[in-house]
Design a protein that fits this description.
The protein has helices at residues 35-50, 55-64; strands at residues 3-7, 10-20, 23-32. It is an alpha+beta fold and 65 residues long. Strand 1 (3-7) and strand 2 form a beta hairpin.
């Protein structure tokens, strides 16, 4: 699930990628002018994550830890 937050005058999206060593790993990006822009970008990033696009980054992070 994608959450949209307002930070100052900009918006950000956040979604949970899973747990690493018992801690929640979240994917975030901010700097969107409108809530709609953040939602669209968040949906694209979430679908990319679900389909394995961000899997390599998460695997690298888990190998480091």
């Amino acid at each position: 699930m994608i959450n949209i937050r307002k930070r100052g005058s900009k918006y950000q999206y956040v979604f949970e990628a899973g747990k690493v060593n018992g801690k929640k790993k979240q994917i975030t990006k901010c700097g969107f002018k409108t809530k709609r822009e953040a939602l669209i970008a968040g949906e694209k990033a979430y679908m990319k994550f679900i389909n394995g696009g961000l899997k390599k980054k998460l695997m690298c992070l888990m190998q480091i830890i």
